[in-house]
Amino acid sequence: NPATDYIEIKIKESEKVSSIQILDISGKVFSETSAIGESVRVDLNGLRPGIFFVRIVSSVKKFDVIKISKQ
C-alpha cells in the first residue's frame, strides 16, 4: 500500500535502533529521524510521489532497508 502523509515504524526494544533515514533510489538521504521509543512516525509530506527506501540504523551500525511507495 502506498503511503501518503507518514509511515509508522514499530521498534522492538532488543533492536536498539538509533535512527531512521529516508533515501531516494540514488541513495540521497532526504530525512533522518532519531528513533526514540517503541514507535516512530516519519513524516513524508515533503517528498514527491515515487519510490523511496527507509534505512533503519541500529546503534551497532547494522541496518535494514525497506522499500516504500509515496503517493
Write the layout of secondary structure elements.
Layout: E1 6-10, E2 17-23, E3 29-34, E4 39-43, E5 50-58, E6 63-70
Antiparallel strand pairs: 1-4, 2-3, 2-5, 5-6
How many whole angstroms does the radius of gyration measure?
Answer: 12 Å
Largest sheet: 4 strands, antiparallel
What ranges have pLDDT less than 50 throughout 5 or more consecutive residues?
Answer: none
Helix percentage range? under 10%
Report the average pLDDT across residues: 89
Q: Can you tell me the overall shape?
A: globular
Find the count of extended strands (DSSP E, 2+ residues).
Answer: 6
What is the structural class? mainly beta
Order of helices and strands: EEEEEE
The neighbouring-strand order within the major sheet is 3-2-5-6
